[in-house]
Amino acid sequence: MGVRHIETSLIVWTGEQEKKAAEVKTTNAVPMFSADQFYDAGDKGCGDGPMDDIAGMMHKMSAGQKLEIFATDSAVSADLSAWCRMTGHQLVEQQDNHYLLQHK
């Protein structure tokens, strides 16, 4: 007998994320990496939509560009890793609550 774990997730980018991103309250986090863009998710967890915001920002970026994300919710780390595997983007580095993604 064996156990098989399958990861599934679907993030559909509709453009509504841009409106939500404008309403996000920031924590005044200071960027740690040299990235093309910075997103402060604060303590937003999965249910609050940070992955929708991140997907929308990455959608606008070009190949090779980098996005730094600041997020204090511990679930974001697992979500970002899984999302990068599914979309082909790369999680380049993580230090504490800072994540550096590179567009595929």
Main traits of this protein?
Translation Initiation Factor IF3; alpha+beta; 3 helices; 4 strands; 4-stranded mixed beta sheet; single chain; 104 residues
Structure write-up:
With 104 residues, the chain is an alpha+beta fold. The chain has a domain at 35-102: Translation Initiation Factor IF3 (2-Layer Sandwich). The chain contains 3 helices and 4 strands; from the N terminus they run H-E-H-E-H-E-E. Strand 1 (37-42), helix 2 (50-60) and strand 2 form a beta-alpha-beta unit. The longest helix is centred in the C-terminal third of the chain and has 13 residues, at 75-87. The model has no long low-confidence stretch (mean pLDDT 84).
Helix content: 25-40%
Strand content: 15-25%
Listing every helix as H and every strand as E from the N terminus to the C terminus, the arrangement reads HEHEHEE
Give the strand order, joined by hyphens, for the main sheet. 1-2-4-3
Say how many strands there are: 4
Q: Provide the CATH top-level class of the domain at 35-102.
A: Alpha Beta
**CATH fold-level topology of the domain at 35-102:** Translation Initiation Factor IF3
Judging by the overall fold, what is the CATH architecture of the domain at 35-102?
Answer: 2-Layer Sandwich
* Tally of individual helices: 3
Backbone structural class: alpha+beta
Mean pLDDT across the residues is 84
Q: pLDDT below 50 for ≥5 consecutive residues: which ranges?
A: none
The description of the largest β-sheet is: 4 strands, mixed
Supply the CATH superfamily name of the domain at 35-102.
Answer: TusA-like domain
- Principal-axes geometry comes out as globular
> Span from first to last CA?
38 Å
Radius of gyration: 14 Å
